[in-house]
């Protein structure tokens, strides 16, 4: 991955995190900074998973949002149990 790919993944990851949080129903108990961090992680993981199948941008975006929603759901479950 080139440096421009990494920078764009970080920027897109911030948006992906917000979209992932919107996809998960109910109130989330995690901080917004953690949601954005999960979005960046989801952008990398989702981009890698999608690249195994195709490089079509819409498919990559959908996979990234699904991964972000899954991460937000999992981390929110961990935070809800602690509280």
What does this structure look like?
It is a multi-pass membrane protein. Belongs to the UPF0410 family. It is found in: Cell membrane. Keywords: Cell membrane, Membrane, Transmembrane, Transmembrane helix. By secondary structure, the chain is an all-alpha fold. The chain has one domain. Helix 1 packs across helix 2 and helix 1 crosses helix 3. The protein is elongated, with a radius of gyration of 13 Å. The N and C termini lie far apart (39 Å). The mean pLDDT is 87.
Strand content: under 5%
Number of domains: 1
Structural class, from helix and strand content?
Answer: mainly alpha
* Approximate shape: elongated
Q: Helix and strand string, N-terminal first?
A: HHH
Average pLDDT taken over every residue: 87
Q: Count of helices?
A: 3
Distance between the termini: 39 Å
Structural Rg: 13 Å
How many runs of DSSP E, i.e. beta strands?
A: 0
The percentage helix is over 70%
Low-confidence stretches: none
Q: How would a textbook summarize the main sheet?
A: none
Write the layout of secondary structure elements.
Layout: H1 3-23, H2 32-51, H3 57-82
Helix pairs in contact: 1-2, 1-3, 2-3
Keywords: Cell membrane, Membrane, Transmembrane, Transmembrane helix
Membrane topology: Multi-pass membrane protein
Family: Belongs to the UPF0410 family.
């Amino acid at each position: 991955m080139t440096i421009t790919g990494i920078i764009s993944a970080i920027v897109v990851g911030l948006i992906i995190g917000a979209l992932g949080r919107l996809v998960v129903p109910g109130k989330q108990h995690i901080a917004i900074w953690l949601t954005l961090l999960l979005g960046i992680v989801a952008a990398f993981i989702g981009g890698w998973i999608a690249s195994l199948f195709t490089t079509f941008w819409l498919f990559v975006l959908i996979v990234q949002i699904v991964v972000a929603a899954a991460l937000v759901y999992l981390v929110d479950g961990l935070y809800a149990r602690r509280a």
